[in-house]
Design goal:
Layout: H1 5-15, E1 19-21, H2 22-27, H3 32-40, E2 44-48, E3 51-54, H4 63-73, E4 81-82, H5 84-91, E5 101-105, E6 119-123, E7 131-134, E8 137-140, H6 142-151, H7 155-168, H8 173-188
């Protein structure tokens, strides 16, 4: 018995907390036109170009971050990681709630469209040791995040992140000392 488009979307959305991309839908045999029709009928909500949410799916605190990651990846986008202040927020290492979602992509990544206003794009080479998975999301590691913050002029925030990461057990005492030393070197530079 053939599967309906809605059944196929429900299956895809279950894998991504209620989110579906144009790309994943196409791979399941669902056209853009069908997606547009489902938006018109109120079954899907278009979040940004290439990213949709099933209307009755539950959102959680990490949903905006998943949406941002999928926005980059929706059309064969590059490897991406949540970074800077956003990485600290996702890891629970700050009380701050960043006004934008900070993402890092490779330096030469071609994004086919402008970023939504709520997304800030940084460009850098990320080694495999620079990215961890947290709650199913790619996030820059604590050491990488601290150095990114420092390099962007947020030295005080970076130093606070080192102390909080040590208290929470994300880094060892040795890593804490190394990062603190690197921050002092950056501050002196």
């Amino acid at each position: 018995m053939p599967q309906s488009h809605l059944d196929a979307l429900l299956e895809l959305a279950a894998e991504n907390e209620g989110l579906v991309t144009t790309r994943s839908a196409a791979e399941a045999g669902i056209s853009r036109r069908t997606l547009a029709g489902m938006v018109e009928r109120g079954r899907l909500e278009r979040l940004s170009r290439g990213v949709y949410r099933l209307v009755h799916s539950n959102r959680d605190a990490l949903s905006p971050y998943r949406e941002a990651i999928l926005w980059v990846q929706s059309h064969r986008g590059p490897r991406v990681a949540l970074s800077h202040e956003t990485a600290l927020a996702v890891l629970g290492l700050t009380d701050a709630n960043p006004s934008t979602i900070q993402l890092t992509v490779p330096p030469h990544a071609r994004l086919r469209r402008s970023a939504p206003a709520r997304i800030a794009i940084h460009r850098a080479i990320l080694d495999s040791s620079d990215v961890i998975e947290h709650e199913g999301l790619p996030v820059t590691s604590v050491p990488r995040t601290v150095l990114d913050l420092a390099r962007s002029g947020n030295l005080r925030f970076a130093a606070d992140a080192v102390a909080q990461a040590r208290r929470e057990g994300f880094i060892t005492e040795i890593e804490s000392r190394r990062l603190t030393k690197e921050l002092k070197n950056l501050h002196g530079a």
